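Holo prediction — 2-acetamido-2-deoxy-beta-D-glucopyranose.
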Amino acid sequence: MNRTRLHAAGKMLVRCYRAKLSVCAALCVLVLCWFYIFPVYRLPSEKEMVDEVLRQGDVWQKNQTGIDLYRKLLTDCCNPQGMFAVTKKNSPMGKVLWYDGEFYHSHTVNNETFPLFVEDNPLPLPLKKCAVIGNSGILRHSKCGQHIDQADFIMRSNLPPLTKEYVEDVGHRTHLVTANPSIIERRFQNLLWSRKVFVENMKVYSSSYIYMPAFSMKPCTDPSLRAYYALADTSSNLTMLFANPEFLHSLSKFWKARNIHAKRLSTGLYLVSLALGLCEEVTAYGFWPFSIGLDERPVSHHYYDNILPYSYYHTMPEEFLQLWQLHKSGTLRMRIGRCPP
Ligand SMILES: *[C@@H]1O[C@H](CO)[C@@H](O)[C@H](O)[C@H]1NC(C)=O
Ligand SMILES: *[C@@H]1O[C@H](CO)[C@@H](O)[C@H](O)[C@H]1NC(C)=O
Ligand SMILES: *[C@@H]1O[C@H](CO)[C@@H](O)[C@H](O)[C@H]1NC(C)=O
């Protein structure tokens, strides 16, 4: 990709000599600007990444300095403890919540929304061992279920299935699960019709927190509020937490400064960041954005399906590289491939 871009730039230069000089200059400036705004990274190929992970093997040593450093960095930038959810404390009546995924849209906390917020951060802090589960197909046949279930606090993304066929690989306990409003729309008819299916489906997460980006984009708000009411009206054991857009925004800036240039971070990276800020130890499972596994066989995108993401938004390999650096420095542990018995 790197090479093709340079090649294209070269071709453009040759053609430029025949064209008017001023046009050429303008084009060159444009190209330079392009490279300035979107610098070309040499991202490793899938094969290189597989080799690198295999080379590292099971060698991993916890690095308390790294853990403390990242907790401090994240606390300073983003205050996960106080800000990760919208609470009555950080969002009183009249507070303007700026949507982090859109320009110039905001929600002013009012009569109707304020009562839906939890009082303050409800998590049982400090969290000890946390497991963050990405949903990559690499989890298939990983036998990581028991490992995962042993953690003190287990975070999952986007209402993943936890049916019998998967339990051995992904475990069954959950303490916090994110729900993308688009899934409410797709899977549950936006909760405009029956809410029973939704409520029944949520039982698999027992008494977890459901974490929804209600104030990230305008179309997210209504489905999130509807999900809140569906749970509240059926005295479900789940507790709805709305992601605080200020927190999400500060995390985006944090990672942008560390070479992740996605339009929007993946849910997985938000959760890992939250865990790094709140937990004493973090293990990440199922983070593998590549289409081949350690045995070089194809890996599906999710452990439960192979629907590809909207790649315009996320830059998963960039994110993976950052997590891999944290793994190598002992700040968190990534489990890729099979878990030891
Ligand atoms: C431990 O983490 C610190 C901070 O990130 C880093 O500077 C150091 O090199 C790490 N130590 C090892 C052995 O990787
Ligand atoms: C709150 O709601 C009540 C009725 O539900 C309304 O009369 C009142 O004006 C509202 N207050 C504010 C500050 O919006
Ligand atoms: C909530 O949890 C209690 C205790 O585990 C259980 O008996 C009850 O059935 C649960 N309620 C719902 C709606 O799932």
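READOUT: The CA atoms of residues 159 and 201 lie 9 Å apart.
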